[in-house]
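User: Structure please.
Assistant: Input sequence and predicted structure:
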Amino acid sequence: MKTEIIVAKNAGFCFGVDRAVKIVYNILNTGKKVVTYGEIIHNKDVTAELSRKGVRIAESLKDLEDLTDETVVIRSHGAEKQVFEFLEEHGISYEDGTCPFVKKIHNIVSEKSADGYDIIIMGDREHPEVRGIVSYCRNLSDICADDTALENFLKKNYTKIKKKVAIVAQTTYNISIWERCKIIAQSVCPQTEVINTICSATSDRQQSAVRLADKADLMLVIGGKHSSNTVKLADICGSHCKNCIHIENADELDFPFIKGLLKNNGGEKFIIGVTAGASTPAYIIKEVINQMSEKLQNMDEDFNFEEALDASFKKIYTGQRVKGYITAVNDAEAIVDVGTKHTGYVSLDELTNDPSLKPADVVKPGDEVELIVIKVNDADGIVTLSKKRVDALLGFDKILKAKEEDAVLEGTVSGVVKGGVNIIYEGTRVFIPASHATAHRDDKLEDLVKKTVKFKIIDVDERRGKAVGSIRIALNAAKDAAKAKFWETVQVGDVFKGEVKSLTSYGAFVDLGGIDGMVHISELSWNRIKHPSEVVNVGDVIEVFVKDLDREADRISLGYKKEADNPWVKFEAEYHVGDVIKTKIVSITPFGAFAQIVPGIDGLIHISQIADKKVSNIKDVLSVGDEVEAKITEIDSDKKRISLSIRALLEEKAEEASDAE
């Protein structure tokens, strides 16, 4: 019979726990004293080791009074809101080791409470994580242990009251029970918003443990007896493997029991599955494996100690593609949990090709990322990683495909370089020559930096992993497509909103969306203007209508002035032949003077109608700007002409004076 030890893929420290423990050790390494608010993690071996290094545990706010040279570290489970308020008010130095997934729940319940939601928490009401979540709830309804408690609570309180309800879960909550909770919540209380807040590491750990337990003859679950996630893990494994033992460390291994299982096993292979809670460090798992392997060496002749030990731990090597969780981010790098005993580091220049970005712009704690191993240092427990190299591999495949399909891509211009600009597409740098970077030669390359643009790939060097693109070709292609679509549907009379692109002495050119039309100067205003700039400016968005189309010449004539604003319409509605009106002289000619009646409408006072006597030089009688009274003597609607007379008024006054005598 062959015996095999298999360690679950996601066993042991999660990144949140690892981060909290490292915070403590980092402070200790500076020579400072540390006080943790509660046990930093639920593992007696770790807390005992920290205690030997002088780390003190504070159980209440009273224990934090009168601190002088000690730094407080908040445990990975988080703490009540009032703890942070106390530390801030008293000016106590502290580091927040709260797991990012727990912080996320704090933010969710705080925001939902502010929006008027009642909050229901699925979890253990005595667990420090849950107590912390409660402190951020303004409208806490209840804390339910399982799906049965949730169903009873919802039926009792929310079937008739249509109130907003949000349900969250403790990060280490049982996945199977959570799935049942979601179904119950939606069936009993449809207005409930169910928010999955279970840590992805917890989910992965439980699922990998279940897969292993299904095929194992014996499951060992390693972790603290009062660790919530480890207890849940043991319960789950116990429901999938009839022989399941929960131990805190190697000292608790029951070898007589294991020996009995081996003796009574009738199969060709005996599989021992090993998993561990999120608060179990790798060295404890390794101690369990070591002791198991040594004992099995004596029990089973076919058992190979070295092979079992090597197979039990995840290996990592240069060039390997791995997945990891971002545990922390600073100005220079991102720190990653890759599931081994190593601490992973990704420097800024291996995170992105964009020099304008900081690590926090690319990743944040809690993100799962795919990376390539650049260097492994087992002695220091460090692995150097690259994100941009994975991104580049994936991005370059897409670039090759885009070149084959002549597809349009979209990326951000990272900066100006010699001869052009660089675009970052899917983590891959694409060079755009200056001649292909802008729509017009006079456009500045600097204006493109940090802008998202569309481009096409015009050349690819697969061997060197380089690509050349063109923004101009993409712009022209988009313009041609828009023009073709425009000509398919446009009709005389259609109304558009467009941007004024340029002005000439004879009109304004307007972009209708990929195609330009022209508004002639005579169509810009009902008034006489000398230049289009008197009415519109470059950049103005105006409403125009199609007056005429010349498809063969690709020309569009546009109108801008509205018939409703036509001053002639207003004139005919308000003025009639015989009306005496006040006018203003606007120009003088050899044959008469033009007088403005309303803006846009002038009437002619013929030289013979300026006075009741012969006038040889009009300028001897009238000047531009003079305001005079005149009588409307004729209106020619077809020719839009109006005749005025000052003489008629003078003659009428003379007759009235004669009659009065």
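The mean pLDDT is 86.
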